[in-house]
Amino acid sequence: MTDTLLECVQAETGPNPTRAVIWLHGLGADGHDFEPIVPELDLRGLPPVRFVFPHATVQPVTINGGMAMRAWYDIIVSDLVRREDDPGIRASQRHVENLIARENQRGIATEHIVLAGFSQGCAMTLHTGLRLREKLAGLVALSGYLPLAATFAAERSPANAHTPIFMGHGTADPIVMLERATASRDLLRQEGYDVEWHAYPMPHSVCAPELGDISGFLRKVLA
Length: 223
What we know:
- The structure is a single chain.
- The protein contains six helices and nine strands; from the N terminus they run E-E-H-E-E-E-H-E-H-E-H-E-H-E-H.
- The protein has helices spanning about 35-40, 85-105, 120-130, 150-155, 180-190, 210-220; strands spanning about 10, 20-25, 50-55, 60, 65-70, 115-120, 140, 165-170, 195-200.
- A seven-stranded mixed beta sheet has the order 1-3-2-6-7-8-9, with helices on both faces.
């Protein structure tokens, strides 16, 4: 299952892209969710960028009564971390690694790829990106947290020890509590990661000031 390539929505800022952003959606959404942000990020002046918005697989989600929906892994308890879907997280990790490998095959080096995600997609961005054995350009982690934190120190890759990380979160987020995100931020900083932290007066969402800050971050790491 994990050897197959996920279906994706794609958008390019110009012909023959030499940069890529792989953007992972949240629970119950799909690859179309963040497609409209591409023009809003206004990356004029950068080399052409390919945005890849994959659709997660459809699976039952325990916390939603077992309803089947697009999800990167199962959510078992509301605090997110007391019981975690280790096999599901690692299966999606391989899916994301396959997407990175496809960009390599299309001529974009890993060092010119940003991995980004919202909520569950954020969790997969941090989990996969910091374990990847090739250096990424950067990580954009929105309204989420670092899953499987207990195994992180043993599994993290030195290749991305100095990769810039953008973390953004809403101060009124009722889904992924702010404290969950700040705990992940603090753990990453304690391990020496370069975390650019932003908090916004919003719920579990993305706002215009955050998009402006993401644009600035992408302009730095994809230049």
